Amino acid sequence: MIGMVTITRNIIKITALCLMLAALCSCAPKYARFEESFTGEFDTYTVIVGYAHSKKEFDGYVKIIRDRLLDLHQKYDIYNSYEGINNIKTINENAGISPVAVDKDIIELLKFGKQAYDDTNGAVNIALGPVLRIWHSYRNMGLEDPENAKLPPVYALRDAAELSCIDGLLIDEVAGTAYLTEKGMSLDVGAVAKGFAVQLAVNDAKEAGMTFALVNAGGDVVSVGGPRDGIRERWAIGVQDPIKGGQDIFDTVYVNDASIATSGNYQRYYTVGGKRYNHIIDTETLMPAERFASVTVIAEGSGIADMLSTGLFILPVDEGKAILSKAGGEAVWIHHDGTAEMTPGYEKISKTFGGLPHESSCV
Ligand code: ADP
Ligand code: MG
After folding, report:
1. Which residues line ligand 1 (CB under 6 A)?
2. For residue 306, which atom of ligand 1 is closest to its CA?
3. Based on the number of CB atoms within 10 Å of its own CB, is 45 exposed (0-12), middle (13-18) or buried (19 or more)?
4. Ion ligand 2: residues, Cβ under 5 Å
5. Could you tell me if residue 80 is left (phi over 0), alpha (psi between -120 and 50 degrees) or otherwise beta?
6. Is 200 in contact with 68 (CB distance < 8 Å)?
7. Along the 363 residues of the chain, how does pLDDT read in single tens digits?
8. Counting ligands in written order, which one lies closest to the CA of residue 129?
9. Contact at 8 Å (CB) between 307 and 317?
10. pTM of the model
């Protein structure tokens, strides 16, 4: 009799367990993989891979990201004006004239830019506009007429540097204004704006419910959660080979909820007398930084990753490591001969150099 009761109890337990499992299975959200890409915003190609319950849900996140990127592109633009918007160009045009009332997205970017100067010991300076403009125009002339490509005169760069003092950028948070105190001053937010904007756009989509996605806006990559493909727990992201260029991958890193940005000498440059001059300018020498072929940074947010990648591309490795340990993040520095230095944390997430069990397939 006792035996019968025990068997019956067990059957009831097993049945209850099965029912629970069945309920769990049927309630468990099913995810499908979707992908979308677009060009234009921040003059770049953006790819979004995501796992969602439906195409409609995924399309909703894509729209949120795209709309926000377009909005921030206009606010952070230094070259173009837009009807009804005071943007960074407006601030530049009013240098030495008057403070400009700007949206809080601009105030936040400028505060971030000022902080970047301190965080990178002055290597990233968003008030370097006068110097960068000179390099920009010599680079454009050199690309149009390579035979006659020239370097900017040193005296012109030095004069421009006099007008590139970050303290001349005044941000009044209460009044909601930004002001450049001297005529001739100008902001160039190229080192920070895209990464900062992508993070804001992704944050909006996360708030709307996006939980598993990888957003790549022209190399500024933000990962949200992991892939839901049942194979991997982390996103596999390629670090481009700066020497071979093109689609060649130097390494693959595995990340979840982290951002990646790269600064390299292969993206924008011109050639003078057989030597390559890239678009990242060392604030000490006023010449293009040439220590590395590229630096890739992995950090919590893409604003920080983008800003640090530019700063670390300029500074010596040791200084970069000290900055990283304060700001938080990992990095790989790729030298011109193809050798690399990296932080211990980078090794742990690296396919080529590191500790993680290798997971299959790349995104
Ligand atoms: P990319 O725009 O190619 O992703 P970066 O994020 O490194 O590369 O930003 C490079 C841009 O940053 C340059 O095109 C220029 O507009 C700006 N820049 C270059 N040097 C500096 C610097 N020392 N401080 C601040 N901004 C810089
Ligand atoms: Mg950058």
Report:
1. 123-126, 128, 132, 188, 190-191, 219, 263, 267-268, 279-281, 283, 306, 309-310, 314
2. 6
3. middle
4. 191, 306, 309-310
5. beta
6. yes
7. 445 445 455 555 555 544 444 444 445 568 999 999 999 889 899 999 999 999 999 999 999 999 999 999 999 999 999 999 999 999 999 999 999 999 999 999 999 999 999 999 999 999 999 999 999 999 999 999 999 999 999 999 999 999 999 999 999 999 999 999 999 999 999 999 999 999 999 999 999 999 999 999 999 999 999 998 888 889 999 999 999 877 899 999 999 999 999 999 887 899 999 999 999 999 999 999 999 999 999 999 999 999 999 999 999 999 999 999 999 999 999 999 999 999 999 999 999 998 665 554 444
8. 1
9. no
10. 0.90
DSSP, res 350: B
Distance of CA 318 to the CA centre of its chain: 22
Ligand 2 midpoint to CA 303 (Å): 8
